[in-house]
Amino acid sequence: MVILMARNSKENRRKVLGEALSKHPFFTDEELAERFKVSVSTIRLDRGELGIPELRERTRAVAEGAYSTLKSLDEQEIIGELLELVIGERARSELLIDESMVLAKARVARGHYLFAQANSLAIALVDAPMALTGSVELKFMQPVQVGKVVIAEGNVLKRIRSKYWVEVSLNVDSQEVLRGNWILFSIDDLEDVRETEME
């Protein structure tokens, strides 16, 4: 009876684990171990049994799919590495802060790099060949040190015809470093650009 219960528990855990990783492929083994109250080696064994690759391979696969769905930007216009993109819904990217991006004396990231990461992610969410930023409200929470990886997460809050309201949050080590709210306009052709400028 105990053996049957243990087997059911293992099968149930693996089923839930598979569902969790299909929805959120960026969970680390450590995060999953904590979530399921088991060891990291148990999670690795479960992933192996389910045929789910490690985080790096999952991230690469999701990123390839994300880049293939880009509409409003070219691949090289994304600042950072695009990790996830569901146009009109949500997006995620990461940016490693290197020596070329920091202030010489303070050794922290220049603000325009963080803004560029957030802005390009917001634009990527727009379902159109082109998009323009109408307005942005930004709040910088704390500085970002050289060598840190900034994770940007964007969500479309609302859409009315060609107008999008997007929220983007930048985080380092689970600490929010920037939050912004964008209003963007989808543009189908250059005539739309001229009309937007007239408004």
CATH class of the largest domain: Alpha Beta
Helix/strand-derived category reads alpha+beta
- Note the overall shape: globular
What percentage of amino acids are in beta strands? 25-35%
What's the assembly state of these chains? single chain
Distance between the termini: 72 Å
- Count of individual helical segments: 6
Rg, Å, rounded: 20 Å
Q: Mean pLDDT, rounded to whole units? A: 83
CATH topology value of the largest domain: Thiol Ester Dehydrase, Chain A
* Count of structural domains: 2
Annotated CATH architecture of the largest domain: Roll
Q: Which secondary structure elements does this structure contain, and how are they paired or packed?
A:
Layout: H1 2-23, H2 29-36, H3 40-50, H4 55-68, E1 81-86, E2 90-96, H5 111-124, E3 130-140, E4 149-160, E5 163-172, E6 175-187, H6 190-198
Antiparallel strand pairs: 1-2, 2-4, 3-6, 4-5, 5-6
Helix pairs in contact: 2-3
